[in-house]
Please model this.
Amino acid sequence: MKRLLAAAAKGDPDAEYNLGVMYDNRIDDHGNAVDPTDDNGNAIASNRSEAMKWLLRAAEHGQPRAQTRLAELYAAGPDTARNYGRACQWFVVAMTGLNGVHRQRAQDGYASVCSQLTTTEIQAAQRRARDWDRRRRRAMLAAPIRAAR
Model:
């Protein structure tokens, strides 16, 4: 766990994603139960806010499975945290980076949340997804220029 936290703290999207999954419901992408423990062997309790924090970081770093998982949490969260618009946005973003069963999962989630939104809300979520993608592409293009300096 210590190595996973260290890697996530350094911005490793896969480590951030794995921490998000562990802090969420302790079930991985394939439906397998995981039993995360701290360095002393004590079980780590489910913590939705901590899961959202790590999944958002991984999603912002472009990890498509994290984007799907984050969208699912926004869609299924408790009433006070449920946000179908944000879920729709992240499902759109995720679909561009996934194939096969993972893409189908994102498409199914997208269809489900769209049934809860108005056309205007769907368009706003799609616009936010496009804006996010543009910002990400610009940042990726600028990164090599900054590294060369």
